[in-house]
Amino acid sequence: MAYDELLAEKIKLYFITHKVRTREIKMMGGLCFMVDEKMCAGVIGSELLARIDPSIYEESIAIKGCDIMQFTGRPMRNFVLVNLDEVEAKHQLDYWLKLCLDYNPKAKSSKRK
Length: 113
What we know:
Elements: H1 5-17, E1 23-27, E2 30-35, E3 38-44, E4 47-51, H2 57-61, E5 66-71, E6 74-82, H3 89-103
Antiparallel strand pairs: 1-2, 2-3, 3-4, 4-6, 5-6
């Protein structure tokens, strides 16, 4: 499945504007943005993949356009998918990417040894 390249460009622009160094990796059929060698955000299909603090997971999935991220049939409590077509895209994209960056310093790296 191809990912939304326009959304990927908007995410890239947000990171550049906020002077955040990223590394892009194609995975899970989409594009992931790594910050400090940790997955921070990404694009799967036409949705934003946001890595957020698990402590705000429940309130986040209650927000319009936000949904549970499932991998191998299990919900991942620190990742959500956001359909930006259902919300005010620019404002919401900034909101979700800020949440991703806020959580990134606390996130554990999954570097392979």
